[in-house]
Amino acid sequence: MSRHGTYDNPVYVNSPEDAYVVPEPRYQDSGKGGNTTSKKNILTLVCLVLVCVTIIALVLIFAVEWKKDNTASDSAPVVNSCPPPSEKTTQTPSETTQTHATPTSARLSTEKQDRRCGNLNKPPHIVLLLLDDLGWNDVGYNNPRMKTPVIDELATNGVIFSSMYSQPACTPSRAALLSGRYPANAGLQHLVIEEMDPNFLARNYTLLPEKLKELGYMNHMVGKWHLGYCDWKYTPLYRGFDSFYGVLNGFLSDYFSHVTNTPFFGPKQAVGLDFRDNTGAVLHENGTHATFLFTERAQMIIERHNPVVPLFLYLPFLLPHGPIQPPPGFEESGEGINDTRRRNYAEVMGALDNAIGNVTQTLKDKGMWDDTLFIFQSDNGGDIVFGGSNYPYRGNKATLWEGGIRVPSFVHGRILERSEERRVGKECRSRWSPYH
């Protein structure tokens, strides 16, 4: 053996003349060195081949399974919470061009999801319907004697809030709804803002439509405001809404002439017209029930809206707030009810149900329904003075008993996850706002 035979690298050779002499392999004396090295080389090569084959096999298996999954998803019905819409949604030319230009699997998958559940890649349209003094026992899904088929269908196919709590009266409830704050923290914990009361929801509170405006929404309000009107800066057009059509104060004394007498009870101190189209007075609709006017304006807004832009439509209808004046044509809704007040109330609910049906049908005709989140609720409990009912709960509007603050409410929309059990637990009014 060479004196350098124990080294495998000639760099370790100290003698210059031996710098390029390849040392003899170790264990040469055993006579097995060459065979051992060859076997190691062969074994290493085999291992490398096996690793490569394994990697290739895994890649092929993954590719085959991925193709099967995509084929199955293309051919088999997808089981999820969003049933296929019955109407075709409207596509803009830019969307159509993009579809043909990039027919990737990801793009196609997104389009199928859009067709099933609405377009989940953009903010939904929001319709917030707030009824006035609607009691727990005043809707068909809680009381079969009330004929409200449109409301019932939307509720049973949506998510019903079985424990929705509001404030006990109009102003504090609306303040909480739009500001996301408890009324006591906003200075509106008293009963309501009276007709000649210089009170208001302070401007230092950012309201829901103002936050939605930052997200690109067009905001329209049709109905009752009741959050201050002693100065224009406290009215809807200065609080985030692009248009306003309705009543600034808390009620109408006559739904056909749109006149307000103040106070609501007792000798008249003032009489005036309270019906606004933006800042102008509506003088030419005398004789038409306010509910019909609200519905027509809501339909017009939807028909003229560009579906590409997200819509926030706030519909705080006046009914069924007293005085109870049912419009003609809804007598069938009160059939079989002996009590006069309750029968008139049922007819009013029939008119409201018809109005809601007209609004939702217009959304469908416009191709916006599949992308709409529809929210339904009352501002407080029913008023038994005018035929409302909060059964089985104790109390009335303007009280803190369950009957005064536990209200019917639900949401409907294809973007919602649904299950067999659609009634969910406790909610509170202020949580509709994105902040608290």
Textual characterization of the structure:
The protein is of the alpha/beta class. The strands form 2 sheets. Strands 1, 2, 3, 4, 7, 8, 9, 10, 11, 12 and 13 form an 11-stranded mixed sheet that branches. A two-stranded antiparallel ribbon has the order 5-6. A hairpin with a 7-residue loop joins strand 5 and strand 6. Helix 7 packs parallel to helix 8. The longest helix has 43 residues. It is elongated. The termini are far apart.
What class, by secondary structure content?
Answer: alpha/beta
Note the beta-strand portion.
5-15%
Helix count, DSSP H or I runs of 4 or more residues: 9
Radius of gyration: 35 Å
Largest pleated sheet? 11 strands, mixed
**Mean of the pLDDT scores?**
81
Low confidence ranges: 1-33, 72-116
Bin the helical content. Answer: 25-40%
End-to-end Cα distance? 87 Å
| Shape estimate | elongated
* Helix-strand pattern: HHHEHEHHEEEEEEHEHEHEEE
**Tally of strands:** 13
Write the layout of secondary structure elements.
Blueprint (H helix, E strand, L loop, with lengths): L32 H43 L17 H9 L3 H13 L7 E7 L17 H8 L2 E7 L4 H10 L28 H7 L3 E7 L18 E5 L11 E4 L7 E4 L2 E2 L2 E2 L8 H15 L6 E5 L24 H26 L6 E7 L23 H4 E2 L1 E4 L10 E6 L8
Parallel strand pairs: 1-9, 1-10, 2-13, 3-4, 3-9
Antiparallel strand pairs: 2-11, 2-12, 4-7, 5-6, 7-8, 10-12
